[in-house]
Amino acid sequence: MVRSKRDAVFPPGRQALYDKHRYSAAIRSGDLLFVSGQVGSREDGSPEPDFEAQVARAFARLASVLEAAGCTFDDVVDVTTFHTDPESQFDAVMRVRDSVIGAAPYPNWTAVGVTWLAGFDFEIKAIARIPAAA
């Protein structure tokens, strides 16, 4: 059995944070892109204190990873989000989501309530189909 090497994708900047925590922003496998969970951190890696701004930053981080692989949110087929208080956070998440994801058809979406996100209150990960080169 031949094992292929991981094809890692990184957006510009923040490489020190990926190295420090020993993970890739995304892995390309064939025509699929598997994006690691993105949080709403400030440039120094600390959590954005305002919840809605934290969600917007997480979506922006996801967008930068997608862009590094030649993708956009239109290419996203599956999303998983993690929430520390889903009931109280739902409206803010939906406002940001609607401004980024756009109109139907929507990607698959699974939301999970969790008790710990390393100081964050929201995390988003995704799978996207990488568009064929034009």
Automatic annotation (TrEMBL):
Lineage, opening ranks: Bacteria, Pseudomonadati, Pseudomonadota, Alphaproteobacteria, Hyphomicrobiales
A GO term for molecular function: deaminase activity
Residue spans crossing the bilayer: none
Pfam families in the record: Ribonuc_L-PSP (PF01042)
A single cellular component GO annotation: cytosol
InterPro entries associated with the record: RutC-like_sf, YjgF/YER057c/UK114, YjgH-like
Entry protein name: RidA family protein
Origin superkingdom: Bacteria
